[in-house]
Amino acid sequence: MTYFDRRPTSGGPVRVALIGAGGMGRHWLRLLHGDPDTELVGLVDLDRSVAQAAAESIGRSDLRLGTSLTEVVGAIPVDAVVNVTVPEAHLPVNLEALGLGLPVLCEKPIVPTVGDALVLAAAAEVAGRLVMTSQSRRYFRSLNQFRAAVSGLGDIAMVTTDFQTGPHFGGFRDRMQHPLLLDMAIHAFDACRHLLSADPVAVYCEEFNPTWSWYDGDAAAVAVFEMEHGTRFVFTGSWCNEGLPTSWNGQWTARGAGGSATWDGLSAPAVDGAAAEQASQLAMQEDSAAPEEIAGALAGFLSALRTGATPYGDIHSNVWSLAMVQAAVESAERGARIPMGPFMGRAYEEALDSVRDPIVRGRLSSWGTARAGLAAHR
Ligand SMILES: NC(=O)c1ccc[n+]([C@@H]2O[C@H](COP(=O)([O-])OP(=O)(O)OC[C@H]3O[C@@H](n4cnc5c(N)ncnc54)[C@H](O)[C@@H]3O)[C@@H](O)[C@H]2O)c1
């Protein structure tokens, strides 16, 4: 059952305010400016000069600028919000948008903790407005081809992903406590859920910082997830890798009863084994015209607003990708395997303890359990 209203009711282009005009914000700015189904009307950044420079970079000095969403929405009509602020600002900005009656498409990670995500999901239900995460790396044609191929291999025993790059970002990632797991691995964890149509059951993870790392927090990790239906998902990754880099989507292999498939994160998958022909045919049938990366997330968001159909990335489902990250962090800190059932129970208690709004608390409390509340809107 859908919890959100369709927007805009007029059926015209969706009038969007973009919040956050930093590195990623500028990518969104160009996408929204050129998208015929949206009308970019406002741009918000804590630093007004950053917003102004970004608007001028696309020749849009007409955009309504502001240092808060409330300021911009008070001045012009807005139908929806795209939130590209830093992760710590995601929760307050998303709640502000919901308070203004606006649906939100928010960059990953949707909020810092699973407890916060449960509060946000309940707040979205109370407001009757869609909250969706943009997990841009789920929108790759070749990932969907890999997924189709994997669906032709029968039961899947294991999936492995190796992610190795060495970017020097500067900025918030260099100071984060868990830069690889929180800011990057969520893409692979989310893609694995998409690949297998399965949620996590348990995780064991070791997180560490190589001696030459330029990050304050741990920039490398090895994690083993048990997924639903028994598949094991093994993730190895480093954000301070030197030499032999993988693609930004990582290097993937899936091993099933009917054979194996690999994906280099860029091109069509390769398949081998008894079911290879069937798996290859399934991969070839995948839609080749679907928009990719953030354009794919935007198309999913707009389609959901138009049709009322729950999109991939809806907060109620995306919580499970965030839960994979946070449970992996907890496992690394405690040196223990973390089963997701008790983990989600603790997150639900934390959410009930932290939520201030009595109506949102009532909604959250009515779920009974996190799993039941999330499942009601999948
Ligand atoms: N999908 C991807 O591949 C991808 C890639 C890069 C970044 N991201 C995500 O995008 C988000 C932004 O990353 P970035 O690299 O652009 O960061 P950034 O630091 O370059 O930019 C963030 C901007 O948000 C502004 N800001 C912070 N708090 C605000 C608030 N409360 N209200 C208004 N503006 C606020 C800052 O002033 C800054 O200009 C992060 O969540 C990041 O994880 C996603």
From TrEMBL:
Span of domain Gfo/Idh/MocA-like oxidoreductase N-terminal: 14-133
Gene3D superfamilies: Dihydrodipicolinate Reductase, domain 2, NAD(P)-binding Rossmann-like Domain
Transport in keyword set: no
Keywords: Oxidoreductase
Domain of life, source organism: Bacteria
Classification of source organism: Bacteria, Pseudomonadati, Pseudomonadota, Gammaproteobacteria, Lysobacterales
Stored InterPro entries: Gfo/Idh/MocA-like_OxRdtase_N (IPR000683), Gfo/Idh/MocA_oxidrdct_glycsds (IPR050463), GFO_IDH_MocA-like_dom (IPR055170), NAD(P)-bd_dom_sf (IPR036291)
Protein name: Gfo/Idh/MocA family protein
Location of the GFO/IDH/MocA-like oxidoreductase domain: 153-243
